[in-house]
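Suppose a colleague, Dr. K., hands you the sequence of a protein chain of 163 amino acids and asks what its three-dimensional shape might be. Before reaching for any lab equipment, you can write down a predicted structure in token form. Begin with the sequence itself:
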Amino acid sequence: MSNKLKQEEVETLRKLIKDIDTAMLTTASEEGLVSRPMKTQDVEFDGDLWFFTKKETDKFDQILHEQDVNVAYAGDSYVSVRGKAEIVEDTEKKKEFWSKALEKFMQTSYDDPNVVLIKVNAETAEYWDSGDFKKKTAFLYKRMTGKDSESTGINETIELDKE
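The predicted structure, expressed as tokens, is then:
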């Protein structure tokens, strides 16, 4: 894949998720898959997604044991991102993404050693571009019947290998 094509794909994803504040992060637990809502940090999407969490959470432990995760967005479009998660404890990186709202929500500050970042290195993304009614109808038709409608091209899969 050429760098230009990769950049175009990253730009497509950036446009699709930029206005969706909350994503569903799915991790693997001993009992199976677990999803929970997470606020994507406001950074320019470059193939990585960033989330704050604390060490004393199940998702922290789950990522330490299994780095394969999925992040799903639902808004005017639907996006599913598969990738590898890593825990980032870099204080400067945490400070870069920190906000007053996070401080209030997490009831602590960015330099708290219990606060960490989850960085998801996106590998593959699938999206359903359903920004208008016709596309939404085609999307729902396909989901209900398993067959394509007259409207095509609303579902795409892109590879985001970072080489």
